[in-house]
């Protein structure tokens, strides 16, 4: 393997090349990355019918002690449903045979398959409360079976103010732990009260912006160049009425109606809305890529002559993201805590809609209106231009691939012959799926890494690439495999996550010209690349040589680095070798063995411009050579 180390030999890799695609699928955000612990916080998920289904809320107490039902008395116009709680027992009434139990009765929420409450941690609990008389309400986190109190505070409402809706906000500090805890609101006095918009969040979230910290850190650790959101099919909806509408997901949480995602089949309160997606991109140091609905769902398409309202809606969305403070939507962004514009430069016009009725007509309406107002905006078409030219203008086009391991590895050459003169490629969804992948096999990660080296070598035409899907809550698997698996309290990366770690040096690095000299059999299973990157904290440069050996035999390689600038010397002490391999191609990580398939790092003491390397059978390798 020969590497030409002179920077002019290759090209600069786009700073966006490797990034993230976040979709609200598998409870990735709701009950996942978004740290809200309460599920169905506004009691809206069951619809407006009275009484509506309030699941997963349940009564605390028997039917003779407590009566739950919804009505439309909420103070929030967009969220009309509130929960009416009638406490039928009374602790003080000695004449009554229906005395409230010591723990009180009322209502509780189990969160998303349990709330992770940790001793010593604090949680902010907020809700709206109205009652017919003075009230003493206990707010507590209890163990899953309700037998142990983990944290508790009491809200007292006096008879003067009780009749109006009161905004309550409490800090609860946990004195014990349970990964599957629940939130309870209970009383011991005969009373009638209403609850609405009940929220519980850990106070410690990623950058203080509401994201579950350990999950967000997994993303940050990949050093993503972009953050595509919020879907996927989630953006389209099966029916348009259930598609993601950005306008309904901004502003105070209490005024977000939430919606039923009818492709992945669950309700979301939209706490993780348009603003939060933009904020997370910024917090990750990534450029946001907003995928918006272009009037097309899985079942319906808005005819082009009626698409005008959608176009205006999108222009408003752009104004929300980057408009000035004196604009309507820029002002709302500022009120939400972000006066500066977000760095929104990329927009995807729909998702997987190229072949659907009205796509091209609708696309052109969006394209012309957006370019007229925001000429710098990079617009992404859903149509594949990798084999033949697009019949419409675009800055980039979406390319999605889910296939077997052998197919994806073979696709490492997919973009070798793509025209360098047209729009750039955005491989916005790729993964090995099906039998080769299981729930995230090593084989899948191996093939994906080979595909990504091919993308790196073609990064003069491929500008962005992201794995999909990113997250799965283990309690709601809608799609396999996924990069990061979690439940209420634990998480791990699949091999599809760990292979992405091999590419975190690539964005903005210089790709170096390199050649593999090998026989046909070896060429069939081997792909390699070389780049020069800068360590931002030390300021020094390093080389990264990557390889995927997709074959069952170890390969011995001679690495020759030529044209090394005279000022550079390889520092063996500052060099390392990272390898991802596994005993069995179908090996997976799990909650029981979260690190069964993870990269191992060793020193590369023999590092030099001319060295021998052994690539284990079926392995991903990165040799990092420090320079001084
Ligand atoms: O990543 C899962 C789904 O795959 C996405 O929602 C969609 O864009 C694709 O079909």
TrEMBL record:
InterPro entries: Alpha-L-AF_C (IPR010720), ASD1_cat (IPR055235), Galactose-bd-like_sf (IPR008979), GH (IPR017853), Glyco_hydro_b (IPR013780), Glycosyl_Hydrolase_51 (IPR051563). SUPFAM superfamilies: (Trans)glycosidases (SSF51445), Galactose-binding domain-like (SSF49785). Keywords: Glycoprotein, Hydrolase, Membrane, Signal, Transmembrane, Transmembrane helix. The keyword Membrane applies. Residues 428-619 form the Alpha-L-arabinofuranosidase C-terminal domain. It catalyses: Hydrolysis of terminal non-reducing alpha-L-arabinofuranoside residues in alpha-L-arabinosides. It is an enzyme of class 3 (hydrolase). Its EC number is 3.2.1.55. The keyword Glycoprotein applies. Pfam families: Alpha-L-AF_C (PF06964), ASD1_dom (PF22848). SMART domains: Alpha-L-AF_C. Belongs to the glycosyl hydrolase 51 family. This is non-reducing end alpha-L-arabinofuranosidase.
